[in-house]
Amino acid sequence: MKHFILGLLIISLTSCGFHLRGMADIPSWLNNVAIVIKDAQEDLQTLLEGQLEAYKISVVDNPTQANYLLIVARDRYKQEITNVSASTAPRQYLLIYDVQFTLIETKGKIIVPTSHVFVTRQITINNDRILGSDAEEALLKNEMRAEAATQIVNRLSQAKNNYVVSPKTR
Predict the structure, then answer these.
(1) CA–CA separation, 151 and 170 (whole Å)
(2) What average pLDDT does range 5-18 have in this prediction?
(3) Alpha-carbon torsion 22, 154, 96, 141, what sign?
(4) pTM score > 0.85 for this model?
(5) Is CATH 3.30.160.150 the right assignment for the domain spanning 23-158?
(6) How many CB atoms sit inside 10 A of residue 1's CB?
(7) Which tens digit of pLDDT belongs to each residue from 34-59?
(8) Residue 102 pairs with which residues in a beta bridge?
C-alpha cells in the first residue's frame, strides 16, 4: 500500500509539470544566442551568459553571427518604504528589481514577446551602521540580478511550446 501511494504521488507531481528549482528544460533549437543589453547593467549580461552556457547553449558576442537575440531592454531598481521608525526615518524598504526582455530571431520573428521579470527583497536600515546597510543593499542587488537571470532562462525554457523551428534556423 505504501508503494502504491508513493507511486501515485510521484505520478501526480510529474504530470502537473513540477520541476526542482534550477532545473530548466531548455529547447534544443535555442543555440547561437547573442545577448543585447540596451538600458541595463552590464553584469546582467555576464550572469545570463553563465546561465545559458551552463545549459550548453552557445552565446556569441556579435549579434550578426547569432540565430537568436536575447534583448534586455532595461532594468530598474525601485524602493518602497515599508516601515518607519518613531522619528519618522525609514527603517525598512522593499527593493524591487524589474527586468524587461524579449527573444527574437535575427530575421525579426518574435519568439518571446516583451516580458518582465520581478525580483523583490526586503532590507532593514540600521541608522547606527549606515556603511553596513549600504554593503547589505549592494549584496542584495547582486543576488537579485542573479535571480533575475535564472528567471529569464526559465522563461526561455517555456518558449519551447509556443515556437516552431523552421529548417533554415537550425
Answers:
(1) 25
(2) 72
(3) positive
(4) no
(5) yes
(6) 5
(7) 999 998 888 999 999 999 998 889 99
(8) 71
pLDDT (tens digit, 9 = 90+) per residue, 112-141? 999 999 999 998 877 666 666 778 888 999
Tell me the three cell numbers of residue 11: 505520478
Q: How many CA atoms lie within 13 A of 155 on its CB side?
A: 21
CA distances from 147 to 12, 87, 161 (A): 28, 35, 23
Q: What is the DSSP string of 20-57?
A: -TT-----TT--SEEEEEEES-HHHHHHHHHHHHHTT-
Cβ–Cβ under 8 Å, residues 69 and 33: yes
Q: Which residues are CB-neighbours of 96 under 8 A, at least 6 positions away?
A: 77, 78, 79, 80, 118, 119, 120
Element (H, E) at 152: helix 130-158
